[in-house]
Amino acid sequence: xxxxxxxxxxxxxxxDVTVSLALLQDKEGLLPVPACGxxxxxxxxxxxxxxxxxxxxxxxxxxxxGLQRCFSETDSFSESPCIVQTLLVSAxxxxxxxxxxxxxxxxxxxxSLAHNASENVTVIPSQVYQPLGPCPCNLTANxxxxxxxxxxxxxxxxxxxFREACFTGVFGGDxxxxxxxxxxxxxxxxxxxxxPFLCVQSSLANSPFLGYFYDGSxxxxxxxxxxxHLHTDYRDFSxxxxxxxxxxxxxxxxxxxxxxxxxxxxxxxxxxVAFLQNFDVLCATNLEVYQEQDDIxxxxxxxxxxxxxxxxxxxxxxxxxxxxxxxSTEILFSNESTSRNVNVEEHYIFRWNxxxxxxxxxxxxxxxxxxxxxxxxxxxxxxxFLSYNSDNEEEFSGNPGYQLGKPVRALNxxxxxxxxxxxxxxxxxxxxxxxxxxxPILFGENAxxxxxxxxxxxxxxxxxxxxxxxxxxxxIQATHVAMRGNSDYNDPSDGWLEIIRVDAPxxxxxxxxxxxxxxxxxxxxxxxxxxxxxxxxxEGITQQEILGVQTRFxxxxxxxxxGLTCEDKADxxxxxxxxxxxxxxxxxxxxxxxxxxxxxxxxxxxxxxxxPQLLYPLTRYYQGEPYSQCVAKGLLLVxxxxxxxxxxxxxxxxxxx
Length: 657
Fold this sequence. Notes:
Elements: E1 5-11, E2 18-24, E3 42-43, E4 46-53, E5 56-63, E6 83-93, E7 96-107, H1 156-161, H2 195-198, E8 260-261, E9 267-268, E10 279-286, E11 301-302, E12 309-310, E13 313-318, E14 326-331, E15 339-353, E16 356-370, E17 373-387, E18 409-411, E19 419-421, E20 423-426, E21 437-440, E22 447-455, H3 461-473, E23 480-482, E24 496-498, E25 500-502, E26 518-538, E27 541-559, E28 571-583, H4 594-598, H5 627-646, H6 649-656
Parallel strand pairs: 13-16, 15-17, 25-27, 26-28
Antiparallel strand pairs: 1-5, 2-6, 3-4, 4-5, 6-7, 8-9, 10-17, 11-12, 14-17, 15-16, 18-19, 18-23, 20-21, 22-28, 23-24, 26-27
């Protein structure tokens, strides 16, 4: 007991139970054996209060005079307790002792009662040099925790009571466990032969676990409730120019964010805009929780040069048909007929020049709705990066080589409007081909898409083949593809390659085919193979170009699938298309050497010690700095060793002889 009051409960049958309090006198540090006798509730400076409850008695022992004698305005404070007493609480029935409780009172002087509170902030040690919590079992402030032998607030007398039952492990204060690299902890049968040469002679205070479990600020900060901080560590390299994929930064050193769709299909409101990466997304928002974003016209964006900014130019338009953006419309009638504006479409066009942004044009389409309208609103957000000298919105896919993720440029010489691209399906709803939309093939990204074609049990096989071929050909409405990302559409000789088409095999018409719900050799798969290669570098950036494009069909034998009975209903035939980018020359796996095959104990993937990487900075696997610099530094280091060897004593004596 370290305060002026203590409480306990007596549980069980409490009828005719008498609770009493007595002050015991201990001699030479030995407590007398407790005994139940005729005791009084008023014992010197202490009083006893008993409160009945359900099947229990709540007992409270309290000091009556307070703690005035424990401090003085002139006397200095001692480390020894000012009150040391032993109290006995007894419970008896008909002079028969039922239970007793010994209370050891040790009350220390409290300096805050007589002196002004110190304004010194508690100094939290750096976790890099010593553990943040050296005694995790010390849970109670200014009190001794039982079984916590590392608690500095426990006196030696109290610690002797539970010395044999102390908490073990990290919770008990062993926050610096022995690590495997110490020379003294290795067991003989587990120690490798080279261990005595590489083991560490160190004290446990210098432990590799320091700072391992907690790496952060040494002092806590007060945060407002429900406050969430995103992007706390902003990486701002925009003053030295943007690179593809870098986040666009504002003057306030924050990310420029526009809602985008994540891989899980959720709409992320605070997604940063990446330089030279276009997107066109749809986001579904509940009108009840819709909040207007900050006006883009007030945002100042860093253009990529030191001190340079660009101000967006915003144009507002009214939506012609707001109902097509809002579904499940419901209006809550109220006395106030107020309205509000919502953004249904936002289109951003960034003009770029080399690694800077020269201009930003924004078109926002707004709709006026009732302030109490409920429903789901579909918003569209588009971002497009155009070159500063581009007259229209037709943008290059690279300059001169292709950029990863840009559409493959294509040309159809059989049409007047010959600008096109290669497509894949983007299924929606039930996945039927009749409702599927198209998405462009992006350079360097292998993909697979498909849809479902409805086929009846009495389907004509010839017509089915024609429909399947026509459906697959709709993805490749082009005759040529651009070799480079900036090939001119108006000049067919400016690096345009003709698409090599392998037509579907002709099939002999079988009069009986289709009668039993089966057809042979139905083209259902379209394979698009695109050969690419490295064509040099511009300012250290590798440029890639297309060497050729080939399309090929694969056929399957179709059979109508019947359930319990063959009903005259449509069956679903899967149709798919795949695109594969093949780099020339092909990157074949590096064959294993005879050393790697015979000596598996030196395999870096199977063992902790990797001898082949002893000279790792001089190998091609090291990507920390250019290979030429690594070789130069390595040769310089070798020259130092040779010079030191020639200047050593044995060589000097040889030269003198």
